[in-house]
Amino acid sequence: MLCVVEQLGRVDYAAGLELQRDRVARRKGGDIPDTLLLLEHPHVYTLGRNANPANILYSRERLAELGAEVFETNRGGDVTYHGPGQLVGYPILDLTQHRRDLAWYMRSLEEVFIRAAADFGIRAGRVQGCTGVWVGNAKLVAMGVHVSRWVTSHGFALNVAPDMRYFDYIVPCGLRNKRVTSLEILLGRRPDMESVIDSVIGNFAQTFGVEVETPRSVVKS
Q1: Which of 36, 115, 119, 178 is the most buried (most CB within 10 A)?
Q2: Are 33 and 90 in contact (CB under 8 A)?
Q3: The whole model's pTM is what?
Q4: CA dihedral in degrees (9, 14, 57, 52; nearest 10)?
Q5: Residue 111, SS3?
């Protein structure tokens, strides 16, 4: 089974939503194969369907002064942050061609990053009752998805080397007793983003049993 990986560079969040809507509609229509969008966003906070607005600790005006937008979305999960130095991925997969099981899909996404972390010598895993990928009590990868007619959207955010101060302005994922970490913190150095992307693509292909095609494409924000 084929999965096209689109590497898009830095894309405004609103533009990223439009790209997802387009790919989802085309995937539902059978016009494109499974697709994985990989990108970075400028500073932005997003709230999932059941997010508690109180988990954003600063006013939207203050966040705007810090260069960050706020968006409400239809994904699962609470509030999260996206920004430069973070690898964001939006898998547009038709689960009827894989497995009609949302729990399986989420555990498979987590497995991608457990394996990717291992590529960098990091032992990551799961925390019972919490989505995402963790190193100890600290979240390395946040996840929130949406599924319509078994086609997925939204996805994951891997902290490679973001400005961690932006997590201080929210309660990440609504979890007050957890921390957030990054590959840069865990490794003690800033990893090369291209190496991280290569690891994620390889482990995504292996975990989901797909053959990837990676045309180089960049959408400028």
Answers
A1: 36
A2: no
A3: 0.93
A4: -120
A5: helix
Looking at residue 119, its amino acid is D
Q: State the burial class of residue 193 (Cβ atoms within 10 Å of its Cβ: 0-12, 13-18, 19+).
A: middle
Distance from C-alpha of 213 to C-alpha of 159, rounded to nearest angstrom: 24
For residues 13 and 69, the answer to whether their CB atoms sit within 8 Å is yes
Under 8 Å CB-to-CB from 168, ≥6 apart: which residues?
57
Q: Which residues pair with 216 in a beta bridge?
A: 7
Say how many CA atoms lie within 13 Å of 72 toward its Cβ: 6
Q: What are phi and psi of 85, to 5 degrees?
A: 85, 5
- Using CA atoms in the order 88, 86, 171, 146, what is the torsion angle rounded to 10 degrees? 0
User: Which residue type does 81 have?
Assistant: Y
Structure tokens that stand for 2 in this block? 């084929």
At position 106, the amino acid (one-letter code) is M
User: Is beta strand 125-127 parallel, antiparallel or unpaired with respect to 211-213?
Assistant: unpaired
Q: Which amino acid is at 3?
A: C
Instruction: Supply the residues annotated as catalytic.
Output: 173
